[in-house]
Write a structure and sequence with these properties.
Layout: H1 15-22, H2 27-43, E1 46-47, H3 50-57, H4 61-71, E2 82-83, H5 86-114, H6 119-124
Helix pairs in contact: 2-3, 2-4
Length: 126
């Protein structure tokens, strides 16, 4: 999913889902996994470059060596040589749809409450 023009300031977090995937992982692996999920949410698919991924996760070489074997399968490489978590892509699409529906609902509510005139027109008549 291309995140370059689409931004969501919030990300749903489901502790049971996260724990279900990471239960039994070392703490370093859990932390790196979370950092990469956060990075994908805010910037889209990640590079297929261990040095860049390690920098994104802000972890040491030792921490990366511990974490990556646990994480790798959760960030497969796509046809554009980018890594992304497929489940997070689905959550992002759901979030965009929810945002779209709420925006439309808000616009309809505004139209009912304030009429079709713009805010500037309404203030001019007061």
């Amino acid at each position: 999913m291309d995140h370059s023009t689409k931004r969501l300031p919030w990300m749903p977090y489901y502790p049971n889902d996260f724990a279900g995937v990471t239960r039994g992982w070392p703490l370093d692996a859990r932390g790196v996994f979370h950092e990469l999920l956060d990075a994908q949410w805010t910037q889209g698919p990640l590079p297929d470059d261990f040095g860049k991924l390690r920098a994104i996760a802000q972890c040491s070489t030792r921490q990366w060596a511990v974490a990556w074997p646990y994480i790798e399968e959760h960030f497969p490489v796509d046809e554009n040589d980018r890594r992304h978590n497929v489940q997070l892509d689905a959550r992002f699409r759901e979030g965009l749809e929810l945002h779209r529906r709420r925006s439309e609902s808000g616009a309809k509510g505004n139209a009912v409450r304030w009429g079709k005139s713009s805010r500037g027109d309404r203030n001019a008549n007061e």
